[in-house]
Each structure stands twice: as structure tokens, then as C-alpha cells.
Amino acid sequence: MRDIFDAELTQLGEDLVAMSRRVERAVTDAGVALLTADLALAESVIADDLGIDAMERDLDERSILLLAQQQPVATDLRIVVSALRMSATLERMGDLARHVAQVARGRYPNHAVPDPLAATFAQMHDAAVRVARRTTTLLENRDIALAESIEADDDLLDGLHEDTFAALLGGTWTGTPQQTVDVTLLGRYYERFGDHAVSVARRVTYLVTGAVAEDLSTPA
Amino acid sequence: MRDIFDAELTQLGEDLVAMSRRVERAVTDAGVALLTADLALAESVIADDLGIDAMERDLDERSILLLAQQQPVATDLRIVVSALRMSATLERMGDLARHVAQVARGRYPNHAVPDPLAATFAQMHDAAVRVARRTTTLLENRDIALAESIEADDDLLDGLHEDTFAALLGGTWTGTPQQTVDVTLLGRYYERFGDHAVSVARRVTYLVTGAVAEDLSTPA
């Protein structure tokens, strides 16, 4: 009985890794689509997000079956409940990647990011890709040192988000209202993406160390 | 055993209602703070959001205990898992109300909403308050006719959100970049608030009717 349960818990963990890998590809492709005005790539991210949503639903069902067929003890329940929370978070990260792709698609054949902010968004893209890659690895190997680097990149994303506001509000901004709207939303999407990754990282840390992280809910 | 479980499930339902009531007050006060530039009210919404976050954590713990102490069957598990999902959604709705309050606080003593959009945001506020109130009632009495009116108000919120973009991008906008940023973010907060309420409404409908709603994940 215990062996079956362990096997199913392992499967749940593998499902989360697979979801995270998919999110990693989504945010990578969405950023490239944004920075290079690549319509086909943007479309593929948008289409692929349905697959990420389906993975969340499957994980829900698997969790319910697992809880129903076994009688897990409290520690295991904590793992299952955390898995449910993390799958919801990963699903949101997929949505945010899709939103970035939708902005890229909406401005095509133009670039959504105005030239003066191209370098800032290139840095946001790099940080988001690192965050996504490390989230996958953290879910895979539970090396909680990775959680710290995810927090560091989230701080970087927050700083870059502040930079976009500084550019918009510094008094020298000459962008169109459309550009102001796009920069505002894109900045928020990247900032939220980092927040969600931190939430996953804290949950994994909590499961591994048993320590209550500063705050397990998604920072906002 | 069954009676204890039923009592605990009932308690879980009551916790969700209490959370929803708190979100209702948050979005009501946040909107009033926004529309009247009321600093004290904005501050109270921001402070109170910590309480909503704590309710989500309590609900997590209660669910884990409930699952550990009883051996629920699949239908009951579905209810518990749904409760976990809904508490996360309500927590996000609280965050969004807090974000509205933060914008109001940031612009004080000025009004964050520029005059030409005051009527649009007053309508968004009214729709969001109705949505929040009906979400509480739906969680209380499971009258799924309410789910339809929540969807209708969400459609209204989407339309009003489009109106804000039309105002910003119609070529006659003379607002400052700060105003453009604020309108962009506020519009998104209200639009997301409606989406989350729809997600709760669909979950309740699913639990009541057993029918698979169009999409149980949060629309985005």
C-alpha cells in the first residue's frame, strides 16, 4: 500500500516537473517573440497554453484519486496539497507567458517594446527564463540552494519593473499611449511571473526543510 | 465518523463564506477609496488584506486535518480540493482589492482616476461590488442562478475594461503617463477580479450540478 502511494506521489512530482518544463518553454518563446516580433512563435505560445491548463486539471484529478485510494498521513497530505497549490501557480505562469505573446502578436509587424526600453525587457526576459529553468530544476532535484537564486532573480525582475516605471514617469517619455499601456502591462506580467516562481520555490523549501517560509502565499 | 466529517465540511464552507465576505468589504472600500480619494479607507483595505491571507492559510491547514482525520470518499475529496482552489482565488481577489487601494493611496490627495474616466470606473466599482456580494451569497446558499449573474457582470467588467483602452488609445487622450499607467493597471485589476469571481462561480456550479463547466480554471 505504502509503495503504491510513494509511486503515486513520485508521479505527482513528475507531473509538476513536466508542467514547469512547459512553462519554461512558454516564457522563453514568448520573450523571443516579443523581442524579435516573431508572429509564428507568439501564436505557438498562445496555442500551447491550453496544454498547460489541461495539465493542471489532470493533476487535480490525479490528486483526488490518490487521496481517495490511499489513506495518506498528514505529511503526505501536505505534499499533495502543496502540489495542488503549485500546479495552480504554474498554470498562472503559463497564462502570463501567453499574455506576453498576445502583446507581441497584437503589435505585429511592429515591435511592442519601444527602443528605449528594449535593453530593459531583454534583461527581464533573461531573468524570467532563468527563474523558469531553476524552478524546473528545483522541482526535479529539491536542491533548495536554487530557491535563493530564484528569489535573487525575482528581486532583479522587481528592480527592472521599477525601471520601466521610471522610464515612463521620468518626464522624458515620448511614447504613444499604446506604448505606455504595453510597457505597463508587460512589466507587470514579468514581475508577476517572478512572484509566482518565488511562491513555488518557497513551497518546495517548506516541504524539504519543514521550516515555515516567510510567506507561502504568492507575493503581490 | 460521517457526522464529524459533515460538520467539518460545513465548517470549511463557512470559512469560504467568511473569506468571501471579507473580500466583498475589501473591494467595496477599495473602490470608494479610489473614487473619493479617501486615504484612511485605502490604508484600512491594505492592512486588512493580511487577514484575508491568514484565512487562506487557516483553510489550508483545516483541509489537511480534515483529510488526515477522516477517510473521505471521492465526492467529498472533490469538495475539499475545490475549497482549496476557491480559497486561493478569494485570496487573489483580496490582493486585487488591495492593489486598487494602493493606487488610491499613491495618488492621494489627488484622484487616481482622471475625470473623463470617472464614470467608467464608477461602473466598474458597482459591478465588482455586485460580483463580490453574489459570490458570497452563492457560497452560502448554492443558488446557481447567481452564477449566471456573476458571469453577466464579468462580461460587463470586460466591456468597461475595453472602454478604458478605447479612451486611452482613441487618439484624443491627453492624460499624463502616470494617468495612463494608473488607468491601465486599475482596469486590469477590475477585469481580473471579475475573472476570479467567475472561477469561483463555476466551481460551485460544478459541485452542485456535477456538470463540467466550460472551464474551471481562472479565465484570463
Q: Helices and strands in order, then pairings?
A:
The structure is a homodimer of 220-residue chains.
Chain A: H1 2-36, H2 39-69, H3 74-107, H4 118-141, H5 145-169, H6 177-209
Helix pairs in contact in A: 1-2, 1-3, 1-4, 2-3, 3-6, 4-5, 4-6, 5-6
Description:
The structure is a homodimer of 220-residue chains. Chain A is mostly helical and 220 residues long. Helix content of chain A is 83%, strand content 0%. Chain A contains 6 helices and no strands. Chain A has helices at residues 2-36, 39-69, 74-107, 118-141, 145-169, 177-209. The interface between A and B is large, with 41 and 41 residues.
Structural class by secondary-structure content of chain A: mainly alpha
CATH fold-level name of chain A:
Methane Monooxygenase Hydroxylase, Chain G, domain 1
Shape of chain A: elongated
Stretches with pLDDT under 50, minimum 5 residues of chain A:
none
- Rounded mean pLDDT score of chain A: 92
Biggest sheet character of chain A: none
User: What's the structural domain tally of chain A?
Assistant: 1
Portion in helices of chain A: over 70%
Let me know the CATH homologous superfamily of chain A.
Phosphate transport system protein phou homolog 2, domain 2
- Quaternary state reads homodimer
What is the correct CATH architecture of chain A? Up-down Bundle
